[in-house]
Task: inverse folding
């Protein structure tokens, strides 16, 4: 992520936010991201601002539990949509290798072309196999209508644990009803996805994924009993509550100090 | 805004939000809205959710003061960007007629083609003249760099009062330094635009514009002295503080009740 690459001055007060946005706009121009994905990203920016644009302590707790859950899983799958592919393709591939997870393309607005583009992008970062593309998405999630219910019979259908970054609430609920253990990455601690997940990482995906990878590396050599105890002691409701408290406190603090929330246009 | 027009069921719990989004995506496909405008809209959706998706009392206060200010102005201008044109073209034209305001296209990402498209759209809704298009944007706002500083010598340059819906913070500050009386419509009560404006309507533009038009009609026959007293008694800082309190209260309430903030994907 170089200065020249995005032509954004590194001194800009909102440098990172602008770089992330630029990545998404580029993904959009390549046909990987849909217009609705840009709108969803804007919403994320707002929540990111409210949580202070850094990985908060409760998010670190969730990341630790997520790392343990992925390492304990028998058949973990990482679900990838357009925004995820545009923002963290390298990290998705790296994580999938570390925990032996399958990668599955999972689009809210499904099109064969976009599936292939995303698969190609992930393969260019070293993914050996990408599920959920074309004919592979031949199984269906019960409860869901339309193309959104299509999943791979070798991936999400038989997975025990699914990492769903930036996922839709309907789909998250349907996966839960199928009995999956769900790890969400979602900036809105009050979203349905955040509430239905077993572990919710309330953080920006561009910060959370590298930290999740780091935590997996840390825990990889631990005995399974230790990983299980991390999961047993994890309380997702408490984590969500704490994240919400952080947002409320940030707003109160900003209001008290008369500070401006300056978001780039 | 019919059911058939957008193919969204009127029973959908987030019907209005989806309709607004669809208008923007259509504006985007027509070349009126830029990708960055979609991201900015997503951010707005988040703040709209936090203010409760309705026009709150402090916003009504601001709308009343804005109506008075526009009626008192000698040379009012309504500044229009891509998102404004996509969302409230009819209302922009109607308001400009009621208060004798000029309409000026003012793009953060300026292109001649987009200027013309927006002017044509506004003319299709009955605008007799649209400034800031092509050669007309020949004057510059001091302090600002690049194409973003271009304004019309017959519009914003000589205006006393400028209505800036959904405006960038840099530009809002520059206009203020030029001595303009600024009325902003902005869903983020902590933005630089919100803080630098003389009157800040913290509300969704699709709700605020019809209410502003209604208020102008109500006040149109009042004596100037009455309008002046409305303005003198208006306290923008207090309004911003109250809006922020509403956001904090909403978040606390949502957290307490365990309610989900369910935003459409």
Result:
């Amino acid at each position: 992520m170089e200065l020249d690459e995005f032509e954004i001055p590194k001194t800009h007060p909102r440098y990172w936010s602008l770089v992330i946005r630029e990545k998404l706009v580029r993904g959009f121009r390549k046909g990987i991201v849909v217009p609705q994905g840009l709108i969803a990203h804007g919403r994320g920016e707002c929540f990111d601002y409210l949580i202070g644009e850094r990985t908060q302590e409760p998010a670190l707790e969730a990341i630790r539990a997520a790392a343990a859950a992925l390492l304990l899983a028998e058949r973990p799958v990482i679900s990838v949509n357009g925004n995820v592919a545009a923002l963290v393709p390298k990290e998705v591939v790296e994580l999938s290798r570390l925990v032996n997870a399958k990668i599955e393309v999972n689009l809210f607005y499904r099109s064969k072309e976009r599936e292939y583009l995303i698969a190609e992008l992930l393969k260019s970062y070293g993914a050996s196999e990408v599920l959920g593309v074309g004919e592979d998405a031949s199984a269906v999630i019960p409860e869901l209508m339309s193309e959104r219910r299509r999943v791979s019979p070798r991936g999400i259908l038989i997975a025990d644990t699914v990492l769903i970054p930036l996922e839709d609430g309907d789909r998250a609920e349907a996966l839960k009803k199928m009995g999956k253990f769900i790890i969400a990455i979602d900036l809105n601690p009050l979203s349905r996805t955040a509430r239905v997940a077993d572990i919710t990482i309330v953080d920006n995906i561009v910060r959370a994924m590298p930290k999740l990878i780091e935590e997996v590396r840390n825990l990889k050599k631990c005995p399974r009993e230790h990983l299980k105890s991390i999961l047993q002691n994890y309380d997702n409701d408490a984590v969500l509550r704490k994240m919400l408290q952080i947002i409320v406190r940030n707003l109160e603090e900003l209001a008290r100090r008369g500070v401006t929330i300056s978001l780039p246009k």
Summary: Chain A touches chain B through 39 residues (CB under 8 Å). The longest strand of chain A covers residues 76-80. The mean pLDDT of chain A is 89. The CA atoms of residues 81 and 107 of chain A lie 5 Å apart.
